[in-house]
Amino acid sequence: PILYSYFQSSCSWRVRIALALKGISYDLVPVNLLKDGGQQFSAEFKAVNPMQQVPALKIDGIVLSQSLAIIHYLEDTHPNPRLLPQDLKKRAQVRMIADHIVSGIQPLQNLGILKQMGEKKMDWAQNCIASGFQALEQTLQHTAGRYCVGDDVSMADLCLVPQVFNAERFKVDMSLYPTITRINKALLELEAFKVSHPSRQPDTPAELRA
Asked: What is its main location (predicted)?
């Protein structure tokens, strides 16, 4: 497999965690979202992913984009360890939390939107994340065990950790979200979350390396 990734992309990080958890080795092709006006806009990368976004994964003779579609494929083809619970209610909760982050928070504060916000970008990002985290904190108080849904790592956790990383980058006050903070801390102790961390990627700038 070949993963097209950017070290600081939360969407790419979700997929890197899934690949690490499932023990799938891959080659990484860095796509710098800031350099050369954004390497994702090159004709070469557009041929890989017409949406001109990372991640994209070449695997089993196909190219997949969209982080959750990639993770679902990895779940279907490499079912261990499971990232979706067998219990249907818990499975629905995992998907709900993942969608809450992937659709309801992250796109509102991604690079393309922030460029359009200009000087207001920090306030905008903080407000979008805080609004989403207020709801997420409330949800997790009902679903969480050690992790987002019960005591097993799930797709929801793969979405949570990169979003908390974004929140910290945008200086969101995380003391308001104790459940999110507790789960995030527990997940960052796991090896798959460590090796996939933005501070430990081949394309991480020297000053940001762990």
From this structure: cytoplasm
Q: How confident is the model at residue 108 (pLDDT cuts 50, 70, 90)?
A: confident
**How many other CB atoms are there within 10 angstroms of residue 159's CB atom?**
27
Distance in angstroms (rounded) separating the CA atoms of residues 181 and 172: 12
Q: Tell me the pairing of strands 27-30 and 62-65.
A: unpaired
Q: Which residue has the tokens 């903080």?
A: 126
d(CA 32, CA 35): 6
Distance (Å, whole) CA 8 – CA 139: 27
Taking domain 88-193, whether its CATH number is 3.30.710.10 is answered by no
Tokens of residue 4, six digits: 């097209």
CATH number for the region 2-80 comes to 3.40.30.10
SS3 62: strand
Does the pTM exceed 0.90? yes
Query: 170, 122 in Cβ contact below 8 A?
Result: yes
**Rounded distance between C-alpha atoms, residue 56 and residue 73, angstroms:** 13
Show the DSSP H helices in the chain as ranges: 10-21, 43-48, 67-77, 88-104, 111-117, 121-143, 155-169, 178-187, 191-195
Q: What's phi and psi for 199, nearest 5 deg?
A: -80, -5
